[in-house]
Amino acid sequence: MNPFKYPFKYFIKRYHSSNLKANELKRMLNLWIPFILNRIKIIHISENFKTIKVLLKHSFWNINPNKSLWGGAIFSAADSFFPIMLKQNALLNGIETDFFTKATKVEYIKEAKTNLIFNFELNDDEVLNMIHILNSEGKYQKWHTVYGIDKKSNKCIKADIQPYLRVRRKE
């Protein structure tokens, strides 16, 4: 498929591919309009998709009247990465899934008046547990936590994310 003739179809096909490369996903996500508008930048994705480092830039476009980061931008920076990481790890283990964020709880610990860094991390046990649950129950929906850290290393945001993955039915 020619990526220049049908960019959207190519993007979707690559996004759901088990041989998707980390840098390719990073490039795709950094070009996604909602991330651009909210000043969200993916800094790093590990080759095994177990860590993603995300920067939420503090700028004129995403601050509230108190000059702290707007809650919607914070939510956008925290919402989608655990399902993406889990989906890709399932694909690496031969399991195709449908995936989305089922629920998110955001706790505002401290005003975010600078850039925030979110370090999304999965350990080997979490991935093995997800694979086991998908193979035995057909769906996965455990909670994961990430913190938004400001320039002074303060935890400003705590986000609990509940990804939902279900084994894709063969048609």
Structure description:
The structure is a single chain. The chain is of the alpha+beta class. It contains six helices and seven strands, in the order H-H-H-E-E-H-H-E-E-H-E-E-E. Strands 1, 2, 3, 4, 5, 6 and 7 form a seven-stranded antiparallel β-sheet that branches. A hairpin with a 5-residue loop joins strand 1 and strand 2 (51-56). The longest helix is centred in the C-terminal third of the chain and has 14 residues, at 124-137. The mean pLDDT is 93.
Write a short abstract of this structure.
The chain has six helices and seven strands, in the order H-H-H-E-E-H-H-E-E-H-E-E-E. It is an alpha+beta fold and 171 residues long.
The gross shape turns out to be globular
Oligomer: single chain
Quick one: biggest sheet? 7 strands, antiparallel
What would the average pLDDT be, to the nearest integer?
93
* Total number of strands: 7
Output the helix-strand order.
Answer: HHHEEHHEEHEEE
Layout of helices and strands, plus pairs?
Elements lengths: L6 H9 L6 H9 L2 H5 L2 E6 L5 E6 L14 H9 L1 H12 L4 E12 L7 E6 L2 H14 L1 E2 L3 E6 L5 E13 L4
Antiparallel strand pairs: 1-2, 2-4, 3-7, 4-6, 5-7, 6-7
Question: Which features characterize this protein?
Answer:
single chain; 171 residues; alpha+beta; 7-stranded antiparallel β-sheet; 6 helices; 7 strands
